[in-house]
Every structure is written in C-alpha cells, then in structure tokens.
Design goal:
Blueprint (H helix, E strand, L loop, with lengths): L1 H7 L3 E4 L10 H14 L7 H9 L28 H8 E3 L7 E4 L11
Antiparallel strand pairs: 1-3, 2-3
Length: about 120
C-alpha cells in the first residue's frame, strides 16, 4: 500500500469492517446473499464447480458476480525486512477512534513533512 501510495502520489485511507459486522457491510450483504442463493442445496464436486456457480449469481438490479480461482502458491514463514517497522511508522497514521481497523497510508514520509 505504501508503494502504491507513493507511485500515485495520493494518501490512501483504509477502513475495515471489524469481524462479525458483515451485516452492516453493504457489499458483503448484497453479494453473499446472492451467492448463497445459487449455491443452495448443491453438493460441490470441485472448487471449479463452486466458482462457476458463484459466477451465475445475477440480480434484476444489475449485480453480476465475477469469479476467479487463485492458484498461486504463497511462501510461508517469510522474514520481514529489517526496516519494515520504521517505514510503516513514517507512512502510516492510525485512526484515533478505531486504530485497529482504520488507518491512512501517506505517500509523503512523515520525517520530511512540514506542519503548518
């Protein structure tokens, strides 16, 4: 996110819905109810079948689901770069009310920002 913010020269505000609050997340609420509808009563034979069925979810108001199976293999137990914490402290500002869920990624290094 820091690299993206720097490349675009914009600050990026990230706001997550905390766990167990998906009923207030309009995207999840609208999307998953339709996927559940098309999956109802199905015993899946494969991941591909689940993906194909989810892609069939549509509504009259225009909701259309696009699916993809990510087959990339991810490394586990990778070491974090030694300056990672320092870079994060210089570019990330956590929200005062919900710091665990919301933060701003700044493209400018805080060390060099002028405050008026």
């Amino acid at each position: 996110m820091i690299k993206l913010s720097e490349d675009l020269h914009i600050d990026i505000i990230v706001a997550h819905y905390p766990p167990y609050t998906s009923k207030w997340n309009p995207i999840e609420h609208r999307l998953f109810s339709q996927i559940t509808r098309v999956w109802s009563g199905i015993s899946f034979e494969s991941v591909e079948q689940a993906c194909e069925l989810a892609a069939e979810a549509r509504t009259k108001s225009g909701l259309c689901v696009f699916t993809n199976i990510n087959r990339k293999k991810y490394d586990t137990s990778r070491c974090v770069d030694s300056n990672y914490d320092d870079v994060c402290q210089r570019h990330i500002t956590f929200d005062e009310e919900l710091p665990k869920w919301n933060y701003k990624v700044s493209w400018r290094d805080k060390k060099y920002q002028v405050i008026f």
